[in-house]
Structure formats: structure tokens, C-alpha cells
């Protein structure tokens, strides 16, 4: 991203470094809340099913529908709000997400819970479309990758801490108690954002040439969005069914499977940090390396699924790779879509979440195959994603001098 373009989106120069750091902490906390709330039904599937009197499959469907809601609404809603001041849009989206979480907590029936999740899903798409650009605007020159990684660490924290703690709280205080806790934390982050999050200069709605459709005509961006969809499709083809894969195929006990998933999440912190440190230097090389690491971890997992020490190593490498991917992909999207960052990010968010929903469906459709075949099936989309990402090299702006 060139220096003039960064300057257009940067926080006002009067914003102190301390205020910028506080703003990044607010963004990371909200990211933690959003991802935790998104995945709560996974850990609370049984209590929600029993309490509302619906099949577990219907509760599981909430996650898939949520992902498709994000995928289908992120781009048009972000385009519709393109002219809003960034802080006002951020506050509005966070408030709608909190409203949806409160409605979910108060739901006495499955349809009401579905409406609450639908509200969260619509807000989720716009949130992810603007949060990386907001973080980059708060970054010192040449450090946008690191600030984006700091915010995305909230995603890793949600996987390691948020979802497990929400599941435990749901067992103690009921599933509504878990949603209430998420809503309270989200409202607290909203109040903190009002006070601590620096505003960034108003950016007028982009011209048609760089609007929602025009963004996809920017060099390399369409291929980056395609690579994103393929990578996430492959990942969630396996990850949606990772518990039976580790328990049934790899013969890990339930307790060991839980610990291994914690290892996956902890490895994600390392992946997020590495992605943030390296991506500002050689963005395209780091992107390709991350995809290659993901493909290698899936090969190792598929080949060694019955050799437990190697399976542990494969899961850890997988955690590093997939946590680094959002940082490297989002950084690439912001570079390629520098003239329309929100529109570009909205396409990325749509592709990411359609990949989530598609991966979950693909994993289910492949249930006729042995579960240990899933890592190999995932490579069917991951390998082409590497090829597509490779072809974007010429479109990447050169790294900024340090």
C-alpha cells in the first residue's frame, strides 16, 4: 500500500501512541467477543437442544446459517454504509451485534434464537469488513501487518479461552448464562470504544470504479478472494469434523482430544504473531509460505493420523498455519484493494464465511468416506488455492522502505 494511500486512512497525527494502543485493545476485545459468540452454539449444542426441544442438527445448523448470512450480507451492507464515518459505523455494528446476543440469551424458542443469530451474522460481516482497515489506520508507518495481527489475536484467544469458558459457564449457569456473559462483555467493549477508540478521518463513498463491483476489478483482488474461499473451504472440511477425526481415527481419548484442540488454539497465537511480524516485509512470499505450511500440515495429518506423536505435531502446525492465514490474506487484500479497502475487505469476509459454510457442508457430504480421508479431501481445494495466490504476485505493491 503506497504511502499516500495510507495517509488518507491514518488516524489523526494528534492521536497519541497510548490512545492508539488503547484503540487496538478495544478492537481486539471486540474481536474476541464476536468470535466467541459466533461459536458458542458449538459448545452448547446439547443444552440448547434439550432446553428448546429441537434436534441437535437444528442447533448445529445455526452455525452454518450464520456463516452463510455473513457471506451473503457482508459485501452489500458494507457498500451501503461506505460513506459513514468509521467510528460511527463501528459503534453501530457493535451495538447491533450486542442486541442480537441479548436476544439470543433471552430466546425461549428456536425461531427467536435464529433471529438473534441472524442479527449477529449481519453485524459480523460488516465488523470484519472494517476492523482490519481500522487497525491499519492506527498503525505506525510500515507496521499495519503487526497491528492487524494484534487485533486478530482476539480470534485466537476466543478459540483458546472464549469458547471453552463459554461451554463451562453454560454447564454451570445454563446456555443463556453463557450468552448473557458474552453480551455483557460486548457491551463493556462498546462503552470502552466510545471513550477510547480514536476516530479516523471521514472517507467519502468510493466512486463507481472502486465501489463494490469495481473493487473486484482491481488487479489481483478477485484471485485473492478466490484463494481465500478455497483455503477456508479446505480447512473447514476437516475442522468441522476434527473431533471424530482425532477420537475415532487417531484413537485419542475425549480428554486428550480436548487438550489437543487447546494445543491447536495455542499454536494459533504463534501463527498470528509470526504472520504479523513477517507480512509487512515480504507479503506475497509470506502468504505463499503460510499456504504451503497449511498444505504440509494436512499431508502430515493424513499420513500419520494413527501415529499419535506425529498427529500432535500435525495439529500444532495446522494451528500455526491457519491462524497466520487471516493476517496474511487480509494484509494482501488491503494492499491490493488500497483504493477501496472496505469494499475489498467485504469481499474477503464474504469469501471467508462462504468457505466456512461450504466446508461444513462438504465435510458432511463426505461422511460416506472414512473420516481419516478428510485431510486428503481438503487438499483438493488447498492446492489450487496456492496456485491462484501465486498468480497474484505481479499485482502486489512493492514493500515500503523501512
From TrEMBL:
Membrane topology: Multi-pass membrane protein
Major facilitator superfamily (MFS) profile domain sequence ranges: 23-393
Subcellular locations according to the entry: Cell membrane
UniProt entry keywords in alphabetical sequence: Cell membrane, Membrane, Transmembrane, Transmembrane helix
Transmembrane segments: 24-46, 58-77, 89-107, 113-137, 149-169, 175-193, 224-243, 255-279, 286-305, 311-334, 346-367, 373-396
InterPro entries membership: MFS, MFS_dom, MFS_Efflux_Transporters, MFS_trans_sf
CDD domains linked: MFS_NepI_like
Record carries keyword Isomerase: no
Protein name as catalogued: MFS transporter
Organism per entry: Streptomyces tibetensis
